[in-house]
């Protein structure tokens, strides 16, 4: 009886210890959040430009290119293999590429280019955030 209890206790400690270690490892990998914060910064700058009605083509292109390149880090850093996640990550890349190629030079063009991008951010966040 006592041996059985000790074995159970040992198992419980093992389970708790494992989950602690997993949490600590997750906390030590800042990359997924860093990727999101970087994209959030560039999206924020573009939205700010819209709000202020200051839509400089070169500045817009810079932020779109940074978004496009950062979006390629989503899959390798999150390592989530779900089809819906991978589809959204791919769609984000496609839409950012389209936005960059369209080279918005007015606030109107920027708003139109950002709409499908924002929808993809939202789509994945609704499912995975
Ligand atoms: C393929 C899925 C996916 C796409 C697409 C996506 N995100 Fe995220 N995002 C996530 C997940 C998952 C989290 C939660 C991360 C966490 O808590 O560790 C998140 C969190 C965030 C956060 C909060 C970071 C924090 O502190 O937790 C911001 C800001 C963000 N995303 C911005 C964006 C922007 C801007 C876009 C579009 C340009 C975008 N995301 C597109 C999956 C995605």
UniProtKB/TrEMBL annotation:
It comes from Dyella agri. PROSITE patterns: CYTCII. This is Cytochrome c. It comes from the Bacteria. InterPro entries: Cyt_c/b562 (IPR010980), Cyt_c_II (IPR002321).
């Amino acid at each position: 009886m006592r041996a059985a209890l000790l074995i159970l206790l040992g198992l419980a400690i093992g389970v708790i210890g494992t989950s602690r270690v997993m949490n600590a490892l997750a906390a030590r990998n800042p990359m997924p959040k860093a990727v999101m914060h970087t994209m959030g910064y560039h999206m924020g700058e573009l939205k700010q430009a819209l709000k202020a009605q200051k839509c400089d083509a070169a500045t817009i292109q810079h932020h779109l290119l940074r978004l496009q390149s950062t979006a390629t880090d989503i899959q390798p850093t999150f390592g989530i293999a779900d089809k819906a996640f991978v589809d959204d990550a791919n769609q984000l890349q496609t839409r950012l590429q389209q936005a960059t190629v369209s080279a918005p030079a007015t606030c109107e063009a920027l708003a139109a280019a950002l709409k499908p991008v924002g929808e993809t951010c939202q789509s994945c966040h609704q499912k995975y955030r």
